[in-house]
């Protein structure tokens, strides 16, 4: 695994060490990497906007549906998981001119704050590190629901989000005449509550 850039490591450590409010431990989640997906689309010479897909490798979420003031998250995106629907196309996008997955396999996001708009909408503010470059990013999102699964195995929190990236901000300046500069991103996210945190909180009461 490539080491995360120093800025990303510091942001992640700061978030992890941030003290929890009383009772917040029961609102700790890990991302469900099977049911979470990241899709992106970029112009191909103006003919179309093909889609690609990436997977979350790992990550955590702190979220209380009733109190968003302590919400926070950090996650790693596996660039090597890229799927453009064609092996040769995947290889081209993973080269140094674009995602450069060999030098920095994982993109990293760490939140800095959450802005609540209403009961189900907000904006996640944070920093994205991609290709060794860290930039601020705002991610509008919808909180879909939190509930136990139909078999009662887990408590799940679900979110949908969108973002827009300028690829040149992260050093991807090649082929600007044929590949779009702005990349649309969609995130469909499920997170599983870590029951051991809830059990520990209940035991402490």
Count of DSSP-assigned helices: 3
Poorly predicted ranges (pLDDT <50, ≥5 residues)? 6-11, 13-23, 199-205
The pLDDT mean sits at 88
Major sheet description: 9 strands, antiparallel
Q: Nearest-angstrom radius of gyration?
A: 18 Å
What is the element string, with H for helices and E for strands?
Answer: HEEEEHEEEEEH
Distance between the termini: 40 Å
What proportion of the residues is helical, as a percent range? 10-25%
**Count of individual beta strands:** 9
Strand coverage percent: over 45%
Shape: elongated
- Give the helix/strand class: mainly beta
What does this structure look like?
The protein is mainly beta. The protein contains 3 helices and 9 strands; from the N terminus they run H-E-E-E-E-H-E-E-E-E-E-H. The chain has helices at residues 6-17, 87-94, 195-204; strands at 28-31, 37-41, 51-64, 67-83, 106-116, 121-130, 133-148, 155-166, 182-193.
Task: Summarize the SSE layout with pairings.
Blueprint lengths: L5 H12 L10 E4 L5 E5 L9 E14 L2 E17 L3 H8 L11 E11 L4 E10 L2 E16 L6 E12 L15 E12 L1 H10 L1
Antiparallel strand pairs: 1-3, 1-9, 2-3, 2-9, 3-4, 4-5, 5-6, 6-7, 7-8, 8-9
Give a quick summary of the entry:
By secondary structure, the chain is mainly beta. The protein is 15% helix and 49% strand. Strands 1, 2, 3, 4, 5, 6, 7, 8 and 9 form a nine-stranded antiparallel sheet that branches.
Keywords:
disordered C terminus; about 200 residues; elongated; 3 helices; 9 strands; about 50% strand; mainly beta
């Amino acid at each position: 695994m490539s080491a995360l850039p120093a800025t990303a490591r510091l942001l992640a450590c700061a978030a992890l060490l941030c003290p929890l409010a009383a009772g917040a431990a029961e609102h700790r989640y890990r991302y469900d990497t099977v049911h979470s997906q990241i899709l992106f689309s970029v112009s191909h010479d103006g003919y179309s906007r093909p889609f690609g897909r990436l997977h979350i490798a790992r990550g955590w979420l702190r979220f209380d549906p009733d109190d968003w003031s302590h919400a926070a998250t950090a996650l790693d995106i596996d660039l090597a998981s890229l799927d453009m629907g064609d092996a040769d196309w995947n290889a081209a996008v993973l080269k140094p001119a674009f995602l450069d997955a060999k030098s920095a396999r994982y993109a990293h996001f760490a939140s800095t704050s959450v802005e609540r708009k209403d009961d189900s909408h907000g904006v996640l503010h944070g920093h994205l590190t991609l290709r060794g470059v860290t930039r601020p990013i705002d991610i509008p999102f919808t909180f879909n629901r939190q509930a136990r699964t139909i078999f009662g195995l887990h408590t799940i929190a679900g979110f949908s989000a969108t973002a827009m990236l300028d690829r040149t901000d992260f050093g991807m300046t090649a082929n600007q005449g044929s590949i779009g500069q702005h990349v649309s991103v969609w995130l469909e996210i499920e997170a599983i509550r870590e029951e051991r945190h809830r059990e520990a909180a209940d035991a402490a009461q």
